[in-house]
Amino acid sequence: SAAKQVYIAVIGAGGVGKCFLSQLQALAARKPSPKLSLAYIATSRKALFNDDYSAIDIGSAADSLAGSSKSPLALAQVVDYLAAAPAKAVLVDNTSSQDVAELYPLALSRGISIVTPNKKAFSGSYKLWQDIFSAAASSGAKVYHESSVGAGLPVISTLKDLVETGDKVTKVEGVFSGTMSFLFNSFAPTEGQGGKWSAEVKNAKALGYTEPDPRDDLNGLDVARKLTILARLAGLPVESPTSFPVQSLIPKELESVASGDEFLEKLPAFDQQLEDIKAEAEKEGKVVRFVGSIDVATKNVKVGLEKFDRSHPIAALKGSDNIISFYTERYGSNPLIIQGAGAGGEVTAMGVTGDLIKVVSQI
Ligand code: NHO
User: Fold this and answer.
1) For a substitution probing ligand 1, which of 102, 348, 350, 353 has the most ligand atoms within 8 Å of its CB?
2) Does ipTM exceed 0.95?
3) Predicted pLDDT of residue 3
């Protein structure tokens, strides 16, 4: 009889998607059983798939996709196609699309498992969150999203283990944005002066650390989405990433300028705002950092600037690293701390590939 197969569909082949494909190729070569068969791959403009589900070569998929003349299937049709496959299927969502995220309850209810770094589904409305996990519970399909917080760092799996083994998480605190980490580690270093705020933002963009429009990092929403996900896993029914205080670092006057480039051009005129905050921290011997925290008992979630002693682990971060501290009953006054690269294609894809391995072993 035929060896056991699992069909894989990949939506999104950008920075993370391409790294995922090369990790998938290596995984398929290392672990021949069950056979991981790439049945569908699409970007927003193109797709590759065969009506008879015959496998697409993983190693050449990204190139073949670029040359494909097929348009992507409508999302509901992707679900139909996978639900009718001759074996179990896993949908890997490597987009940041809200539309794809809203498809998860349907896919899960039809037995298709989901693996994704996309934050949208888990940090949108609380109803979507509930729909996703109740669809999975009733069909037995799996849903894993490790890379939606801290890229490949084991943040979500650790929090789940703490909760499921009966520990009481009292507080979660940390630096959750690679971009914000890089910006403040260079703007307000623990040693030396640091540059002007606007110059650091420009530099971070040039180095590829920011979104194409840096305002998408500076508005705090990316961090708010990550906090929403962790708060919900810790048991707080947070309604949305805008239902708690989030400090934006975009000057009011620049919120509505048309482009990211115009924003960068006008930003130097507002350097004094952050310079004052930095100076105030320095007077207390501290440095300023952009952090998020969840106080489980008081149900307080917040995102914004805070001052830290120079010796605090949050102050001493390097590069674009993330740090996440879990304060729990078992761990007492010394929190469980997870630290390391929190952004980038390879480390984000690692979380996705790791999740896929978990799902494949369970379906
Ligand atoms: P890209 O490079 O824009 O690629 C997106 C792909 O999706 C493209 O191929 C596009 O055609 C396709 N696509 C979009 N909408 C589609 C649709 N409706 N149908 C079909 N295809 C569609 O994006 P990335 O960088 O590869 O990111 C992919 C996902 O990983 C996003 O959800 C992103 O949020 C998530 N992610 C990325 C990173 C990262 O480092 N790149 C991280 C976490 C999650 O931890 C990282 C992070 O948070 C970075 C953050 N900026 C920080 O901390 O500073």
Assistant:
1) 348
2) yes
3) 67
